[in-house]
Design goal:
This protein is 64% helix and 15% strand. By secondary structure, the protein is α+β, with helices and mostly antiparallel strands. Helix 1 packs across helix 3 and helix 3 runs antiparallel to helix 4. The protein starts with a strand and ends in a 13-residue tail after the last helix.
Length: 213
């Protein structure tokens, strides 16, 4: 029986996860399978892979043919590298100790690369978050300035009306005071004129009685 290692779709629409399964190459994609080897979740960054390493290695050694997507997963997990080194041991090109040392060095290099990638992604996320926060602050400041400008424009006519009203009131008060002062001055002038006229007017001569004859 020809076997294949492939992905079997699970999960929700637009948020699918996949089971890594061993199945008959003639069976339907989501049909019966022989064994489940792990899961693959592409909805996170980097994609999450949970894999039974030893069982995946066993099936690749027994001739199970991986699909293109599964081949990438097995390569990333080191299954294909381990198979290659074990093949060298079987042929006598390497000792088991040499093969194990090479695989350990490969894993360390892979883990170092993964750590750098994770740090780079984390830094990129932090930068994106910082830029988004700065953009949000800029938008808030622009909105605050627009609101302040509207309030100032609304308050300006009211202030102008108050000043104009105060000026009218002041003008009316000054005019009224001037009228009162003018009336008082006119009254005083009239009194002074009467007094002056009384002093200047001569007294009328007294008529003398005619002498007796």
């Amino acid at each position: 029986m020809a076997t294949t290692i492939r992905l079997q779709r699970q999960g929700k629409k637009k948020a699918a996860i996949y089971h890594v399964v061993i199945a008959d190459s003639r069976s339907a994609r989501n049909g019966k399978f022989i064994e489940k080897l792990g899961t693959f979740n592409p909805n996170v960054n980097p994609p999450a892979v949970i894999l039974d390493f030893n069982r995946a290695l066993y099936w690749t050694k027994t001739g199970a043919e991986p699909s293109d997507a599964v081949r990438t997963i097995l390569s990333t997990a080191g299954v294909l590298m381990k198979k290659h080194l074990d093949g060298g041991v079987t042929k006598g090109a390497l000792t088991q100790e040499q093969a194990d040392a090479k695989f350990t060095a490969w894993l360390e290099g892979k883990n170092s690369t993964n750590d750098k990638t994770a740090k780079s992604l984390s830094s990129a996320k932090a930068d994106a978050k910082k830029k988004a926060l700065e953009a949000e602050k800029a938008v808030s400041a622009a909105k605050a300035q627009a609101i302040a400008a509207k309030l100032a424009a609304a308050e300006a006519p009211a202030a102008t009306e108050e000043v104009a009203s105060a000026e009218v009131t002041t003008t009316e008060d000054v005019a009224a005071e001037q009228v009162v002062v003018a009336e008082e001055v006119a009254a005083e002038q009239a009194v002074v004129a009467e007094e002056v006229a009384a002093e200047v007017t001569p007294e009328a001569p007294t008529a003398e009685a005619p002498a007796a004859q």
